[in-house]
Amino acid sequence: MQISSRFTIAIHIFACMETFGKDYKITSDFLASSIQVNPVIIRNILSQLRKAGLIKVARGTGGTTALRPLDQITFYDVYLAVDLLEGGELFHFHENPNPDCPVGKNIHASLDDKLMQIQRAMENQMKQYSIADVVNDVKQYIVNAK
Amino acid sequence: MQISSRFTIAIHIFACMETFGKDYKITSDFLASSIQVNPVIIRNILSQLRKAGLIKVARGTGGTTALRPLDQITFYDVYLAVDLLEGGELFHFHENPNPDCPVGKNIHASLDDKLMQIQRAMENQMKQYSIADVVNDVKQYIVNAK
DNA sequence: CTTAATGTAGCGTCAACAATTACATTTTTA
DNA sequence: TAAAAATGTAATTGTTGACGCTACATTAAG
Which pLDDT belongs to residue B30? Predict the structure, then answer.
């Protein structure tokens, strides 16, 4: 299975906040028109980011701002906020291996730490990238296009 | 989302083949009783492993054998065989960012290689483990239990 | 020919993702 | 204080994939 598009949408949201935050109020409708998904999808993701302590959302008047410098928000932070799986486990282990079978009885113990190492490798690479990296890239593309 | 249990089931299958292959014929019913899932699930996974060139399945008479030494079958090989996602991409990118928005126009170019690096980190770690590692672990557990 | 097994089609159930409508709630401002 | 603008969230729908199961045609060996 794939990691949900909520993840790339969330990064897109941050990039818009930084790029347009000085000139526009960042509402869910504003974001929806850049990302081209339904505003309610945006609001739900904003809600997850807010609950994770990454952003502040103004009710009533509207508008969204980041609560940390963008170079201190990593891809991993965003991933945890919007795509957390049951128990945080990347792999779905088959539930009931037969305890009366020598393999069934021990397969879990053998696999668990290996699967965890694989998950860690992915998460550690996610920690290498911050929102600031993306924003800088996008700014560079915009400058080069002129 | 999680990586499907087909992956851990497939590894369990290999472990059973190696552990019991000399004493038993490895049929889908035999595997199903160790793994405790429906035999059809097993047969479908065996079919995927067969199409990936990892095993041979005897029709009619029944029975399954690996086509390579188990230290030359990595977790990554198994993952590719049973859990290949559309285009092989771990991340689902939102489809239609607005090309008239400077961010929407460039977000893909900025993210693509970063997402690929994250996926590579996971895949490379998968390549560090082979079926033989699991089989050795299980054998060790069995010896220690005596 | 019988038996035992695989291969596969075809159901059903369940959960997650995504889109959408609708509306209560909140805040600012005129 | 009332209107306007925005968020928060519930509810519904469609779609997809995972997983379980039944049924049966096909295959190979004795």
Answer: 96
